[in-house]
Amino acid sequence: MTETIRVVIVDDQELVRAGLRPLAERDGDISVIAEAADGRSGLSHVRELRPDVVLMDIRMPVMDGIEATRAIVDDGALDGVRVLVLTTFDEDENVFAAIRAGAAGYLLKDVSPDDLRAAIRTVAAGDALLSPSVTAAVMRVVAEGHSPDPDGHGLDELTEREVEVLSGIGRGLTNDEIAAELFLSPATARTYVSRLLTRLDARDRAALIVLAYETGLVRPGGASRG
């Protein structure tokens, strides 16, 4: 029997919270265990309940979603909690700030109900998730503020296979998709991802995605540097 994914919703609009709950819970494998109207109370719920996923808005009173996300990610006692940012705002600086804070995914609130549930399942399973519009924003920020520097982030110390796996991560592939593309077992692909997180001192998979763009390993359009 599949374990239920436990979710906390943090959003300052009561109507949004009320709408998200039934959409998230519709298929029976996701349960909303708490709601909060600001980042500080959301953080309190997360520390008390240790959910699998937090649906986090960005612009909220008391404590915004970026600060709350950073606090969750930096708390060693909350290692298993994944933050999925869900907002109406798609400004590039907000996207990049959320990812830098450690968010495992970033979606806009116009996402379809099916895609919302799929996103919750994806981040709960340990994968990062960025919508196409969000990925484009990441690329814009990297292009405007960073010069590709393949050697400046430790890529020169990676094996050829590790670089291939990082490229797959940067293109948004799941572990299973990377395994299929590189003719690896899923377990071996997961091992490579874990090794990359350690070797590149990356907080999570989303950080590896950003790194793949910053170094020029993956370029706009999903192409890999050959």
TrEMBL record:
It comes from the Bacteria. GO terms for molecular function: DNA binding. Keywords: DNA-binding, Phosphoprotein, Transcription, Transcription regulation. Residues 151-216 form the HTH luxR-type domain. Gene3D superfamilies: 3.40.50.2300. Residues 6-124 form the Response regulatory domain. Pfam families: GerE, Response_reg. The modification 4-aspartylphosphate is found at D57. InterPro entries: CheY-like_superfamily, NreC/VraR/RcsB-like_REC, Sig_transdc_resp-reg_C-effctor, Sig_transdc_resp-reg_receiver, Tscrpt_reg_LuxR_C, WalR-like. This is DNA-binding response regulator.
